[in-house]
Design brief:
The chain has 272 residues and is of the alpha+beta class. The chain contains eight helices and nine strands. The protein has helices at residues 7-20, 43-46, 66-76, 85-90, 102-108, 158-161, 180-198, 259-266; strands at 58-61, 114-117, 120-123, 137-146, 173-175, 203-207, 214-221, 224-232, 241-249. It starts with 6 loop residues before the first helix and ends in a 6-residue tail after the last helix.
Length: 272
């Protein structure tokens, strides 16, 4: 068993999940709890990273909840053609999109539309304005990890200081001295929640190279795949690594791709 899978590490993650929960709620069900008195560490507090020993790695994350999994599985069970999108979004329990219609919003916003849903940002890669308006994927990031390429970064690393501002809500946790192993542990904690709620994954594996040893797990829901994966954060032009939950259109009769082929699917090589 690796350090990232050890009970002590996962226990610390679970303690953080429980401590984020408001009184009387489940650790999984608190996206829409009041959070007016909670603040994300400011850029000023992040500057403590540069006092004394130079620490230039950091993690911002928020635990996957049963409510998020329910919303994503609702999307997986819904129709994604343009005429069904509004009903599909309505079943998630998330706030209505700008203008009240997901189909209309996606047709107006190109590139990658992003919608706010409680503590999450829900991205729709490639939008709904391509291929006749049919959506191919929804995804939700739950962790962002920063590790600079250059060990000679200046004392004030602005990319690292900006990391907390990438979180979609003030409830996200900011770890000022995280390691890549802790980024793996955040994925592992998400995997444990998903497995408890959806059962065993069809595939659990890795992708990437020696420098980017990323994890993934896949559950099949009819003609959709639910994928928990680490990878590049394209919204930051790959400045950060991310861990995300994806729902992907995929033929029910095809075998699930593995390794780098699975990552290719998440990057846009979507099966027709």
């Amino acid at each position: 068993m690796s350090d990232r899978d050890s009970p002590s590490v996962l226990a610390r993650i679970w303690h953080a999940i429980k401590s984020a929960c408001t009184e009387g709620c489940s650790p999984y069900d608190h996206e829409f709890a009041d959070r007016s008195d909670e603040v994300l560490p400011s850029q000023g507090s992040a500057s403590r990273l540069f006092e004394g020993d130079s620490i230039t790695m950091a993690l911002v994350w928020y635990p996957i909840s049963s409510a998020l999994v329910h919303s994503m599985t609702s999307l997986a069970d819904s129709g994604w053609d343009q005429e069904f999108l509004d009903a599909a979004w309505g079943r998630t329990g998330w706030p209505a999109p700008p203008g009240g219609s997901l189909a209309r919003y996606l047709s107006d916003v190109r590139n990658t539309p992003v919608l706010t849903a409680g503590d999450w940002d829900v991205a729709v890669p490639w939008g709904g304005g391509v291929d006749g308006g049919r959506v191919k994927m929804f995804d939700v990031t739950f962790a962002l990890y920063y590790e600079p390429d250059d060990d000679e970064d200046p004392d004030e690393d602005q990319d690292l200081l900006d990391l907390p501002e990438s979180a979609p809500s003030k409830r996200w946790h900011f770890d000022e001295s995280a390691t890549r192993e802790q980024f793996g542990t955040a994925w592992q904690a998400g995997f444990e929640v998903m497995s408890d709620l959806l059962g065993p994954a069809e595939i659990v594996g890795r992708h990437g190279d020696a420098d980017d040893d990323w994890h993934h797990a896949v559950w099949r829901v009819g003609a959709r795949l639910i994928i928990l994966a680490q990878g590049e954060d394209f919204m930051s032009y790959s400045l950060y690594d991310r861990a995300a939950l994806h729902v992907v259109d995929f033929p029910a009769t095809k075998g699930v791709p593995q390794g780098d082929d699975l990552y290719g699917l998440l990057m846009g090589d979507v099966e027709e």
